[in-house]
Amino acid sequence: MNKNITSELATILLQKKELELREKELKEIIKSEMECCNEAKYEDDCLKIAYIPESEAMTFDTKGFQKENPEAYKLFLKPTKKAAYLRVSVV
After folding, report:
1. Cβ–Cβ < 8 Å for 60, 76
2. pLDDT in tens, 37-65
3. For 27-66, what is the HEC assignment?
4. Distance in Å from the first CA to the final CA of the chain
5. What's the farthest any 2 CA atoms get from each other in the chain?
6. Are 10 and 90 in contact (CB under 8 A)?
7. Could you count the other beta carbons within 10 Å of the beta carbon of residue 80?
8. What is the pTM of this model?
9. Using CA atoms, how far apart are residues 21 and 8, in angstroms rounded to an integer?
10. String of b and e for 8-30 (b: at least 16 CB within 10 Å)?
């Protein structure tokens, strides 16, 4: 394995992690400001932001259904092919 390539990948992954953390912080600040000012939309030359308020949705409890109805659950299982991929962790 080429050490330069893996080292560059590690550097990029660390930078990405830092950027994602900063992105999360900035989004939280913007969300708080939009909630405070009761704004639903913001737009400028670079960004369009829409505030989506908290809501409730119905979801299907697959694990619960499988536990309560194992035979019916098996009837609807189907094989799917998954593409090869890399799992990379920064240590």
Report:
1. no
2. 999 999 999 999 999 999 999 999 999 99
3. HHHHHHHHHHHCCCEEECCCCEEECCCCCCCCCCCHHHHH
4. 17
5. 55
6. yes
7. 5
8. 0.74
9. 20
10. eeeeeeeeeeeeeeeeeeeeeee
